UniProtKB/TrEMBL annotation, chain A:
CDD domains: MoaE. InterPro entries: MoaE_sf (IPR036563), Mopterin_biosynth_MoaE (IPR003448). It comes from Fomitopsis schrenkii. GO terms for biological process: Mo-molybdopterin cofactor biosynthetic process. This is Molybdenum cofactor synthesis 2. Gene3D superfamilies: Molybdopterin biosynthesis MoaE subunit.
TrEMBL record, chain B:
Pathway: Cofactor biosynthesis; molybdopterin biosynthesis. One of its GO terms (biological process) is Mo-molybdopterin cofactor biosynthetic process. The modification 1-thioglycine is found at G101. Heterotetramer; composed of 2 small (MOCS2A) and 2 large (MOCS2B) subunits. It comes from Fomitopsis schrenkii (Brown rot fungus). PANTHER family: MOLYBDOPTERIN SYNTHASE SULFUR CARRIER SUBUNIT. Belongs to the MoaD family. MOCS2A subfamily. This is Molybdopterin synthase sulfur carrier subunit.
Amino acid sequence: MLQIPEGACVLTHDALCVNEIVQSVGDDRAGATAVFIGTTRNYFQGKVVTRLDYQAYSKLAIKTMADIIRAAHRNANRSLSSHHPEQSSVASLIRTAVYHRLGTVPVGEPSIVIAVSSPHRKEAFAACEFILEEVKQKVQIWKREFYEGEREEDAEWKANR
Amino acid sequence: MTTPISSTPSASPPPPTITVLYFAGASTATGLTTEAVALPSTPLPLAELGALLAARHPHTNFSAVLAQSGWAVDEEMVDDPRAVVLKGGEEVAVICPVSGG
């Protein structure tokens, strides 16, 4: 877990508790909290997925997650000050939490939860999507899918690009 | 009585080594998660490390994995492997295409 002024990044082998993560970004100044929950799907190209294993280069992955959160907060403040110069002293994102689960994630359970609190919905939605796309593209985490009726050694390491 | 270590004639210093970390497809291909690798010469351009590692794991698909992977050195992603040299002591990770989320 890494705490930064903008929020928190967590890699954990435990099940993700969505309520706790949402509460962790709670703030009385927030009018909106955007949440993304990524769950493991039970099929891929006609094959039945039995489970997914996630692995990370944790030391680097958590730094990359923190960089992404900082970038999201910077971007939001920049767009706010260009559209509403009178509000530029008000942060447009309040707090962000990014949790990624590692190890075996059974089908149907969350592998990633992102929560962003903001005074306004638009910035919260935009930041949540930005963070998800950046995490999928950059964070040093890998997913291996196991399929029904196939040998474990044949399970495939996925690539997002 | 006092013999400075540097003047001891018999012991040549051990070759500088790096620690290589393997994840995902790189780990599956090599059967390893980490490996200590002696550098044949220093400084060694990072761009030459792939061939050195591939030679340690013949008869695997590790070369193909390396061809589509990047590098991290001491917990920083490397943009241009030609601009980085290894002197020994570094932690180098093979970074396969990521698939988080």
